[in-house]
Structure formats: C-alpha cells, structure tokens
Amino acid sequence: MLLRINRDYLEQSREFGAQAAVLLRRSRIAPVSKCHADNKFYHAHNPHLLSGGDYGFKPPLPQGTSRRIINHELQILKCLSFFGVNTMTKLDKLKEYLRGLGSVAVAFSGGVDSTFLLKVAHDVLGDNVLALTAENRFVPRRELSAANKFCTENKIRQVIFMSDVLKIEGVKENPVNRCYLCKRELFKNFLRLAEEYNMAVVVEGSNMDDTKDFRPGMKAIAELQIKSPLIAAGLYKAEIRELSREMNLPTWNKPSMACLASRFVYGETLTAHKLATVEKAENILLKRGLGQLRVRVHGNLARIEILPEDFPKLLSLREEISARLKALCFDYVTLDLQGFRSGSMNPL
Q: In terms of residue numbers, what domain contains 294?
C-alpha cells in the first residue's frame, strides 16, 4: 500500500501531531484524499516536487491482525523520516542515557516497549542489566511465557516476582486510580529487588505516547523516582516499532497489551474468577487468528473490540465464538462497532 500524506490525519496523530504539522507546512505539500483513486500525490498542486515520479512509501506489511494500527504508525514515521526526522539520533540518545546509569533493573512485561528497552539496555550494559517481571492475576499467562522465553534466548538475567495484586489495598474495588495503587506497590518491590541485586536504578518502558493519555500509574512512577529512558530519549510508539523491526525483535509488530483489570468498568469488584474468565475469552479469539483485541466486561455482557478489518472474520465465526464465550458464563456476547481502541474504559 502506498503511503498517502493526509495533512488532517498527520496533524491529528497523537504521537506526531505537532511535529508533523510543522514539517508539512514547511514542505508545502497539499492535502491528499485518503481515497484518491491512484494513490499518488497531486503533482499539479505541488510543482516543487519532481514530476513523473511516485513518492509513495511501501512499508512491509506486518504479520498478524494488528497490521492496520501498526501500518498507520509506520506510515507516519516513514513520512516524517522522509522530511528529516531521524529515529537513529534518538536511539543514540537512549544508549547514552542508559550508559550513564551504569546498571539497571528493567521492569519487563514482554511487550513492545519493555522488550525494546531491555534489549538496548543489555546491548549497552551487558551483565549490568536485570529483567524484573511481575507474575500476578492481571498478567495473562501467555505474556509471562513470552517474557521468560525472550530472556532465556538472549541470555538476560530475569527475576520473576510473584504477588497477589487483589490484596493490595483498594485495588480489588477497581477505582479510577487502580493503576496508581497497583504500580506503586509493584515498583516498591522492584526497587527492593534492584537493591538486593545491586542494580543502581529501576527503569520502565513508558514512551512519549503515554504522556498524552490517561495513565494514573505514571504518578507512581514519578513518586518513586523510577526512570523512563524511552521518554528521556523522546521515543514514540511508532519509532519503537520501527527500531524493533530493524533489530529483528519478535515484538516489533506485536499487538498492544494492557493488564486484564482494564477490561472492567471502574467500580466493578475484581475477583480471580472474573480475571481468569476474561483471559480465557481472549485466548479463544486469539486462537482463531484475531490479534489486536479486547474483551470488555459489563456485568454478564462481553463486548468484543477488534479491528474493523477483522469484522468479517469474527462474524464468520460468530456462532462458535458466541457459544464458547457463553460457556464461560456470559449471557450476552456483542461486537463493538467502533472497533478496537486503547483505553475505551477510561473516564471521559
């Protein structure tokens, strides 16, 4: 698919909005319709471009059902790189930042961001890196297995910390600041482990996108003085995916993940059974080739969020999926017509 520069889309892009707007104004590129028939720039409206050429990019399509969101991220990144935005400079900045820390304990979940951070840290600091992974009811077993596999294959020391998150005061009531309560307790334990293993600091994988979203856990990170190297280097999600791809990391096109507690409406009491049920429901969908997804819970109703392009696939399996999810004690199984969106349970 050719990249088509659409000024409105870029200016509204959460990760590159302000930067993209400046670059596009400087380049004098006219807006191009996303449904332009031949997917080419309007050369008649852009005489400063060389004529007779096709300036579209053709980024490789990622494998898996997360391709739509990832393609949008990578297309924006390709466009900005074309106009001089250099992610390698940020990578160098990240390495310099980590080198200055001396030794680090990395909060490692196995997701896109923490995997990239851990790999770069290990490349720079070698044995002065320790991966800290939490094992609890909020983390799907498949994620824990992937994190352990990555550390084993890359010969990175890993400590798995087991905790009962539902015993943390206030967490099971699922308040709006649940993430803050959980992360504060989790990172207190990470700080203790870092000291025990003689690591100078604890670092975590928040990126620039996280500074613009509803993230109560960021307050705990700040209070405990946990370092966020990806933010320090100015890295956005799309850049992290692109750099991960260049580094051949298996997570470069991995669907985004959030803790299982985020599937429930704020104020609904969390239990081990409810969390396990959601994990089983999502595993059913994942095993049928649906990648970027959430199963949101509203009492006895399961609301499925997937990418709109995957609607036909799910609908072709609707009877089977409905039956399987109802077997998990859901009375109603629905498809959210708005499709997947991160943080859809967050307060407006």
A: 260-335
Coil/strand/helix, residue 227: strand
Distance, CA of 339 to chain centre: 17
**Strand-pair partners of 132:** 107, 159
DSSP strands (E only) in the chain: 104-107, 129-135, 158-162, 201-203, 293-298, 301-306, 332-335
How many domains in the chain?
Answer: 3
Asked whether residue 342 is assigned to any structural domain, the reply reads no
Q: What is the rounded CA–CA span in Å between residue 87 and residue 79?
A: 12
- Starting at the edge strand found earlier in the chain, the sheet holding 129-135 runs 158-162, 129-135, 104-107, 201-203
Phi, psi of 138 (to 5 degrees): -85, -10
CB 264 within 8 A of CB 300: no
- Of the residues 82, 116, 131, the one at which a domain ends: 82
Q: Would you call 348 helix, strand, or coil by DSSP?
A: coil
Token pair listed for 342:
């991160």
Tens digits of residue pLDDT in 287-344: 999 989 999 999 999 999 999 999 999 999 999 999 999 999 999 999 999 999 887 7
CA–CA gap between residue 150 and residue 252 (Å, rounded): 13
Residue 204 dihedral angles phi and psi, to the nearest 5°: -140, 170
